[in-house]
Design a protein that fits this description.
The complex is a heterotrimer of chains A (336), B (370) and C (505). Chain A is an alpha/beta fold. Chain A has 2 domains: 107 residues, Rossmann fold; 149 residues, Rossmann fold, CATH 3.40.50. Chain A contains 11 helices and 12 strands. In chain A, helix 7 runs parallel beside helix 8 and helix 9 runs antiparallel to helix 11. Chain B has one domain: ABC transporter involved in vitamin B12 uptake, BtuC, CATH 1.10.3470. Helix content of chain B is 69%, strand content 2%. In chain B, helix 7 packs antiparallel against helix 13. The radius of gyration of chain B is 22 Å and the shape is globular. Chain C folds into 3 domains: 225 residues, Rossmann fold, CATH 3.40.50.300; 139 residues, Rossmann fold, CATH 3.40.50; 84 residues, P-loop containing nucleotide triphosphate hydrolases (Rossmann fold, 3-Layer(aba) Sandwich). Chain C has 17 helices and 19 strands. Chain C has a 6-stranded mixed β-sheet, sandwiched between helices. In chain C, strands 15-16-17-12-18-19 form a 6-stranded mixed β-sheet, with helices on both faces. In chain C, helix 12 packs parallel to helix 14. The longest helix of chain C has 16 residues. Chain C is elongated. The chains are: A alpha/beta (336), B mainly alpha (370), C alpha/beta (505). Chains in contact: A-B, A-C, B-C. Chains B and C meet through helix 11 and helix 12 of B and helix 10, helix 11 and helix 12 of C.
C-alpha cells in the first residue's frame, strides 16, 4: 500500500505529458487547417469550394416568424447555392455563445448570429475576428463594438409601428377610439410598435385609447381583452394588435358580439407579421391592414457574402398591406 | 360536494354560530374572496353585473356581460383544478406540465382534424374521433408523469418539469411546425356558442366535468384512497391500498382534464399557437387549488373549494381588465391579491383571526356558551 | 476521578416535558475497555449518549474527562469532538461521493490550503495501521457498509479521541463484517481508547465487551464486569424483573379448547423476507393466542410483517386452512382473513388527518373494492358501533384521528381490523405507549376474540402481558427462531433464559 503514491504521482506526470502532446497536436492540426482555410471535415468535402457558414438562431418553434426565418435560411444556404451550412438553435444566450465558440473551432468562414440576448458577445466576436471569421448579425442587434461584425441586418420595429400609424392616420376617421393589444411587455417588437401609436395619441385629440393591455402575444388573452371592452359597452372603432395572433383573437370576440369589422365594417383591424392566413383575411376583407415584419434576411446576407458589405446596418425593406389593394400574389410572396 | 355547511347550520341554530363555524370551514376562503370581489365591483360599478341578450355574427341570440365572460373563461381553469386537486392530494406535489400538455392535446386534435394539410377546407375526421385520440394521448402523457412520480419516486415538480420543458416542442412537431386552422364553423361551437343556445358551450362542458367528478367521488373510493395515500402512504399500503397505482390514477385523471381543457382552448380560436397557448395556466391551476384552502403538501382536499378558487382567479382577471389596469402593472396587482388570499388561507392566520374575533366579540361567544 | 478512567459522568439528569429521561445516572469509562451500554427502548441509552456528545444540554450532574481538572461543559457536538469524544452512528454520516481520505479529513484541515498528497499519505498510513481494507483515493460509496463504518471509526481515531462511542454500528453488517469490526475495536482498545458500545445484540456484547452498564426507565440499574453477569441476569435487569423472585402467572385463557390436531388456520414453511430474518416455520390454530418474543431487533416484528406481506416476501409456502395461498402484499393477506396492527402506530397505523370514521372503515372499504364505497350512513353506523364497543373517547366520528390520545388511536386501529372480521389477527405491540387501563382492556379483548374462535398473534415487550394472554410463545434472537414455549414452560424464567440463549440453566 505504501508504494501506491509514487506510482500515482508518476501516473499523474505521465498524464500531464500526454495532455501536453495532445494539446500541441490539436494546435498544430488546427493551424494547418486554418492555413488551407476550407475545413477538411471529411474526404468528400475537400476542395468542394463551398462557403462554410455557422448559423446561430433562436428556436424555430418560438413563433411563426421564426419558423419562416429558419425556413428561409435553410432554403438559401444550400449546397446548390455554394454553401456548407451548420445550424444551431437556442433561446439561451450562453448556449448560443458556446455554439459560436464551437463554430470558430470548426473554422467556418462566416458566422451568422441572431442573438438571444444583447450582451456578453464581445469576447467571442473578438475570437472570431482573430480567427479571420466574418460575423453577420441578423434580426437582432447586440451591445458590442461595431468593428467586431461585418454587418447587421435588422427590422426597425419603430419604423414598422410608424408605417402602420401613418396608414391609420391616412384613413381620415373623425375619431379614433383604439383598443391597443400589446405583446409581451419589454420585447423589442412591443416597444417599437407601441411607441409610434402612443406618440400619435399624445399629439392628437381625436385619437383615444379605449384600453391598452398586454395579451402577451396570446390570441386568447386578446379575445378576453376585447370581450371586456364589449362587456363594458364602451365604443371603439380600431383594434391595433401587435401581432396577427392577437388580432385574430380580437376578431373572434367581435364576431361573438356581432360587431362588423374589416373593409366597410365598424371596426378597423390591424395586425403585424404578415402570416399567410392573416393576409388571406385581408384578401377576404375581414381585416384592414397588416404590417410586415420581414423574416427573410437570408437574401440580404447572401448578397453581403457574394458582393461585399455596402453598409454596416442594413434595415430591411418592410411593407404594409391594405385590404383594399392586396392581391393573391402578395399573399403568396409575403405570407410567412 | 360537502354537506357539512348545512349540518352546522342545523346544529347551531343561530346565524352567529353558523358564521362562526363557516369561518373554520375550508370553503370559507374562496367564498370570502369571491364575495369581496363581488362587493368591490358592486361598489365600483354596478353595471359589472349587467347581462344582456344580443345577436351574434351568425344571427343567433347570445348572452353577454362580464359575468358570462367570467364563467366562460374560467372553464379551462376549473376543469384543470379538478385534476390538479387530485394530483396534489395523492402525491403531495403539483403537475407543472399542464400548459405544455394542453399544447400537445390541442395539436393532436388539430392534427387529426386536418390530416396532412394544415389548412383543409373540410375536417378530415369527425370531431369526436379527434377528441378521443386527444384524450388517449393526454392520458398517456399524464401516465408518463404518474409513473415517474409513483414508481420512480421523483418529486412531482421535478418529474413534470420534463414535459413542461419538452411539451411545446412536441406540440410543434405534431403539426410539423405549421399553424393549422380549421375553417369549419362546427368546430368552433365547443369553445364559443352552439347556434340557438345563448350560453357559451364551455360552461356546459365544465358543468359536465364537475358533475362527472362529483359522481366519481360519490360512487368510488377515489377521495378516500387519494387522501389516505397523500396523508400516510405507509399506512395506506398496510391497509391494502396500492399507493403507486393511486398516484398514477390521479395523474391520468389530470391528463383527461388536460384533454378537455385543450379541446376548449383550440375550439375557441379554431387554431393553435403552441408556443403561447395555455401559457402559465399551470400556475393558475395550482393557485386555484391553494385558494381552495387545500394543503399543497397533499392529503385532505375539498374539490368544491378548488373549483371556486378557479372562478375567483378568473373573476380577478376580468375585474383587472375591466378597470383598465395598465399592462405593466397587471401582474403586480394579481400578485398582491394572491398574496393576501394565500396568507389569509394559511391555517395559522385563520387560527389567529379566530382568536382575535373572540377578543373583539367576547359577549357573543359567552352568550352562546351559556 | 477513578484511576484509569477516561470519562466519568456523575448524577446526570435530563428531563423532557413530562418525562424523566435520565435520573441521577452515573457512568464510568476506563481507558482500554469496551463498555456496553444496555437497556430496552426508552431506557435512556440514547439520551445519555446525546448528553455526552452535546446534542442535548444536561439538566443536572457533572461530566469529567481525564486530563481536565474541573467538570467539562459540552454544549455542542463540536465541543465533544474537540474534547476527544467521537461518535460513530448506525447510519453512515459520511459522504459516499467523496474519497476515503477526503471523508477522513473533511472539515478538519486547519490550513486554508489543503495538501491532498500528504493527506492521502496520512490516510493510507492510518488505514494500514488499523488494517482497514480501503484505499485513500477510493470513493467511499464503493466500499462495503462495514468498511464505511470502519472509515468513520478511523476518522474518529485520527482525531485523537479518548472516548469512542459506537451507536448500533453492527445492525446493518453481516457476521464476517461484524468480526472485522470487532478486530478493529480490540486494536483500539489496546491503544488505550475507551469505547462505549451500544447494541441490541447480546451475543456481540459477550463477545467483545469488558463491562456492562444497564439502564432502565432512565435510571441506572448497575455496572457489571462481564464475567459476573450471566446473560439471563442481564436480560432480567434490562426488563426489570428479578429473575428468581418472579411469580409465575398462569394464562387466563382456556388453552384446553384448542384442537392442535386440526388443520392450522395459518401455516408457513420456510417463510423468508428481505428484512434480515432467517426463513422460519410457523403455524397457528383456531382460537389460539400465540406470541413472538425476543429483545427489540430480534426480528419478532419482521416475522409478523412477513406473515402479512408487509415487506417483500422472497420465499416459502403459506397455507390458510390447509390451502396454499400466495401472500405478496397486504391486500392478499387481508383477503385471506389476516389483519395486522403495526408496531409503529403513528407511521404505519393511523391516517392522521382523516376522521375516526374513515380510519375505522378503511380496511373493510379497501377489501370491499374501489367502486363500492360505503354510504355515509353505513360508515357512520360502523363507526358508532365500534366507538361504543371499544369505548373510544372521541368528540365525534368526524374528529380527525390525530387529535385523539395514543390509547384511543390504538383502539381505532383495532376497531378497523375487527370490522374487517379476520380469522387471524396480528397485533404488534398493541399496548405500547398507552395507559394501563387501556392495556388491560386490550388484553381482555384479545382473550375474548380467541374464545370466539379467532386466532391471534400478540407481541409485547412486556413479558407478563404475553404470559397472561398467550398460550404459546415463539422466541426469537438475532433474526432466528430459537425456541417455542408452551404449557408449563411458559414462565418468566424459562422465557428469559430462552431469550438470552447460550448458557440457560
Amino acid at each position: 500500500m505504501k508504494t501506491q503514491y509514487p506510482i500515482k504521482g508518476r501516473k499523474r506526470q505521465k498524464m500531464k505529458r500526454l495532455m501536453k502532446i495532445l494539446v500541441s497536436t490539436v494546435l498544430v492540426a488546427s493551424l494547418s487547417l486554418a492555413a488551407c482555410s476550407c475545413a477538411a471535415k471529411g474526404g468528400d468535402e475537400e476542395d468542394s469550394g463551398l462557403i462554410k457558414v455557422g448559423i446561430i438562431n433562436n428556436d424555430p418553434n418560438e413563433s411563426g416568424y421564426r419558423t419562416a426565418n429558419d425556413r428561409d435560411m435553410k432554403n438559401t444556404f444550400t449546397e446548390e447555392n455554394g454553401y456548407d451550412a451548420s445550424f444551431y438553435y437556442s433561446l439561451k444566450n450562453e448556449d448560443q455563445i458556446a455554439a459560436a465558440q464551437q463554430f470558430i473551432q470548426d473554422e467556418v468562414d462566416y458566422l451568422l448570429i441572431s442573438a438571444a440576448g444583447t450582451s456578453g458577445w464581445d469576447s467571442v466576436l473578438q475570437e472570431a475576428q482573430d480567427a479571420g471569421i466574418k460575423v453577420i448579425l441578423f434580426d437582432r442587434t447586440i451591445d458590442a463594438d461595431e468593428s467586431l461584425y461585418e454587418a447587421s441586418i435588422v427590422s426597425d420595429m419603430a419604423q414598422e409601428g410608424q408605417q402602420t400609424v401613418d396608414w391609420l392616420a391616412s384613413q381620415g376617421l373623425d375619431e379614433y377610439n383604439i383598443i391597443h393589444i400589446q405583446g409581451v411587455m419589454g420585447s423589442a417588437a412591443q416597444i417599437g410598435r407601441t411607441g409610434a401609436l402612443d406618440e400619435m395619441v399624445a399629439n392628437n385629440d381625436n385619437w383615444n385609447i379605449v384600453t391598452q393591455q398586454t395579451a402577451e402575444w396570446n390570441a386568447e388573452n386578446a379575445q378576453q381583452i376585447v370581450q371586456s371592452v364589449i362587456d363594458s359597452g364602451e365604443s371603439f372603432n380600431v383594434i391595433y394588435a401587435e401581432n396577427d395572433d392577437m388580432a385574430k383573437g380580437a376578431v373572434q370576440a367581435l364576431d361573438a358580439a356581432n360587431i362588423s369589422h374589416g373593409v366597410g365594417g365598424d371596426v378597423i383591424i390591424i395586425g403585424f407579421d404578415c402570416n399567410t392566413w392573416a393576409l388571406e383575411e385581408l384578401l377576404a376583407g375581414n381585416w384592414n391592414y397588416d404590417q410586415q415584419c420581414n423574416p427573410f434576411q437570408a437574401s440580404y446576407i447572401d448578397d453581403i457574402i457574394q458582393n461585399g458589405v455596402s453598409q454596416k446596418v442594413v434595415i430591411m425593406q418592410e411593407q404594409g398591406f391594405d385590404a383594399t389593394t392586396i392581391t393573391q400574389d402578395d399573399v403568396d410572396n409575403y405570407g410567412i | 360536494m360537502t354537506s357539512s355547511g348545512n349540518k352546522t347550520l342545523k346544529k347551531n341554530g343561530s346565524i352567529g354560530g353558523f358564521f362562526n363555524k363557516l369561518i373554520h370551514q375550508q370553503i370559507f376562503i374562496p367564498l370570502a374572496a369571491l364575495f369581496l370581489l363581488i362587493i368591490f365591483n358592486l361598489i365600483a360599478d354596478p353595471s359589472f353585473f349587467k347581462i344582456t341578450m344580443g345577436e351574434s355574427a351568425n344571427g343567433y341570440n347570445v348572452l353577454s356581460g362580464y359575468l358570462i365572460t367570467i364563467i366562460d373563461r374560467a372553464s379551462e381553469l376549473a376543469i384543470l383544478a379538478i385534476g390538479m386537486t387530485l394530483v396534489t392530494s395523492a402525491s403531495g406535489g403539483q403537475d407543472i406540465s399542464v400548459g405544455s400538455a394542453i399544447a400537445i392535446a390541442g395539436s393532436v386534435i388539430l392534427r387529426v382534424l386536418c390530416g396532412t394539410n394544415s389548412r383543409p377546407d373540410h375536417m378530415q375526421a369527425p370531431i369526436i374521433v379527434a377528441f378521443l385520440v386527444c384524450c388517449v394521448v393526454a392520458m398517456l402523457f399524464g401516465a408518463f408523469n404518474g409513473v415517474l412520480v409513483s414508481y420512480f419516486k421523483i418529486q412531482p415538480m421535478v418529474a413534470t418539469l420534463i414535459l413542461f420543458t419538452a411539451g411545446r416542442s412536441i406540440a410543434a412537431w405534431i403539426n410539423n411546425n405549421e399553424l393549422p386552422v380549421i375553417s369549419d364553423p362546427e368546430f368552433a361551437y365547443y369553445g364559443n356558442f352552439i347556434p340557438g343556445i345563448p350560453i357559451p358551450t364551455p360552461v356546459f362542458i365544465t358543468a359536465a366535468c364537475i358533475i362527472v367528478i362529483a359522481l366519481v367521488l360519490k360512487f368510488t373510493n377515489l377521495r378516500l384512497y387519494s387522501q389516505s395515500v397523500g396523508i400516510n402512504s405507509d399506512s395506506s399500503r398496510l391497509n391494502g391500498i396500492n399507493p403507486q397505482v393511486v398516484k398514477l390514477i390521479t395523474f391520468v385523471i389530470l391528463g383527461l382534464c388536460v384533454a378537455v381543457a385543450g379541446f376548449i382552448k383550440v375550439s375557441r380560436l379554431s387554431t393553435i399557437n403552441y408556443s403561447v397557448v395555455a401559457k402559465d395556466i399551470e400556475m393558475d391551476a395550482i393557485l386555484a387549488v391553494a385558494l381552495g384552502g387545500n394543503a399543497l403538501s397533499g392529503g385532505k382536499f375539498n374539490m368544491t373549494a378548488s373549483i371556486i378558487g378557479a372562478y375567483v382567479i378568473q373573476f380577478l382577471t376580468t375585474t383587472l381588465f375591466k378597470f383598465n389596469v395598465s399592462s405593466t402593472a397587471i401582474a403586480a396587482y394579481k400578485a398582491v391579491v394572491v398574496i393576501i388570499l394565500v396568507v389569509l388561507s394559511a391555517p395559522i392566520v385563520r387560527e389567529k383571526l379566530g382568536k382575535l374575533k373572540e377578543k373583539v366579540l367576547p359577549s357573543k361567544s359567552a352568550k352562546e356558551a351559556a | 476521578m477513578e484511576k484509569g478512567a477516561v470519562l466519568e459522568m456523575r448524577g446526570i439528569c435530563k428531563y423532557f416535558p413530562g418525562v424523566r429521561a435520565l435520573e441521577q445516572v452515573d457512568f464510568t469509562l476506563r481507558g482500554g475497555e469496551i463498555h456496553a451500554l444496555m437497556g430496552e427502548n426508552g431506557a435512556g441509552k440514547s439520551t445519555l449518549i446525546k448528553v455526552l456528545t452535546g446534542v442535548y444540554p444536561k439538566d443536572g450532574g457533572n461530566i469529567h474527562l481525564a486530563g481536565t481538572d474541573s467538570a467539562v461543559n459540552i454544549r455542542s457536538p463540536q465541543d465533544a469532538q474537540n474534547l476527544g469524544i467521537a461518535t460513530v452512528y448506525q447510519e453512515i454520516t459520511l459522504c459516499p461521493n467523496l474519497t476515503v481520505a477526503e471523508n477522513m479529513y473533511i472539515g478538519r484541515t486547519k490550513s486554508r490550503l489543503t495538501n491532498w498528497k500528504k493527506i492521502n499519505e496520512d490516510a493510507g498510513k492510518l488505514l494500514e495501521s488499523l488494517a482497514i481494507p480501503a484505499l485513500p483515493t477510493q470513493q467511499l460509496g464503493s466500499c462495503s457498509i462495514a468498511v464505511q463504518q470502519m472509515v468513520a471509526i478511523a476518522r474518529a481515531v485520527d482525531m485523537d479521541c479518548k472516548v469512542l462511542i459506537l451507536d448500533e454500528p453492527t445492525s446493518s453488517l453481516d457476521e464476517q463484517e461484524v468480526e472485522k469490526l470487532f478486530k478493529l475495536m480490540r486494536q483500539l482498545k489496546e491503544k488505550g481508547v475507551g469505547i462505549i458500545f451500544v447494541t441490541h445484540f447480546l451475543e456481540q456484547v459477550y463477545e467483545v465487551c469488558d463491562r456492562i452498564t444497564v439502564l432502565r426507565d432512565g435510571k441506572l440499574v448497575g455496572e457489571y464486569i462481564i464475567e459476573d453477569l450471566p446473560r439471563v441476569q442481564l436480560v432480567s435487569k434490562m426488563l426489570g424483573k428479578d429473575f428468581d423472585d418472579m411469580a409465575d402467572i398462569k394464562s387466563e385463557s382456556d388453552t384446553e379448547k384448542i384442537d392442535y390436531n386440526s388443520t392450522p388456520v395459518y401455516e408457513a414453511h420456510e417463510l423468508a423476507g428481505t428484512t434480515g430474518i432467517k426463513p422460519f416455520d410457523f403455524s397457528i390454530h383456531k382460537g389460539e393466542v400465540n406470541g413472538f418474543t425476543g429483545l427489540l431487533g430480534s426480528g419478532r416484528s419482521e416475522c409478523v410483517r412477513a406473515i402479512f406481506g408487509a415487506d417483500k416476501v422472497t420465499g416459502g409456502t403459506v397455507k390458510i386452512d390447509g390451502k396454499t395461498v400466495h401472500i405478496n402484499k397486504p391486500l392478499d393477506a387481508m383477503k385471506n382473513g389476516i389483519s395486522y396492527l403495526p408496531e409503529d402506530r403513528k407511521r404505519d397505523g393511523i391516517v392522521g388527518d382523516l376522521s375516526v370514521r374513515e380510519n375505522i372503515i378503511l380496511a373493510l372499504q379497501v377489501m370491499k373494492g374501489f367502486f363500492k364505497p360505503f354510504s355515509r350512513a353505513q360508515a357512520e353506523a360502523f363507526a358508532d358501533e365500534y366507538i361504543k364497543l371499544l369505548n373510544i373517547k372521541t368528540a365525534s366520528s368526524d374528529t380527525p384521528i390525530k387529535s385523539l390520545s395514543g390509547g384511543n388511536q390504538q383502539k381505532v386501529i383495532l376497531a378497523r381490523w375487527l370490522l374487517a372480521n379476520p380469522k387471524y389477527l396480528l397485533l404488534d405491540e398493541p399496548t405500547r405507549g398507552i395507559d394501563i387501563g387501556t392495556k388491560v382492556e386490550i388484553q381482555k379483548l384479545v382473550l375474548k376474540l380467541a374464545s370466539e374462535g379467532k386466532s391471534v398473534t400478540f407481541i409485547s415487550s412486556e413479558i407478563d402481558e404475553m404470559i397472561r394472554t398467550c398460550s404459546r410463545l415463539v422466541v426469537m434472537r438475532d433474526g432466528k427462531v430459537v425456541g417455542e414455549l408452551k404449557g408449563d414452560d411458559l414462565n418468566q424464567n424459562k422465557i428469559m433464559a430462552t431469550i438470552a440463549g447460550g448458557e440457560s440453566k
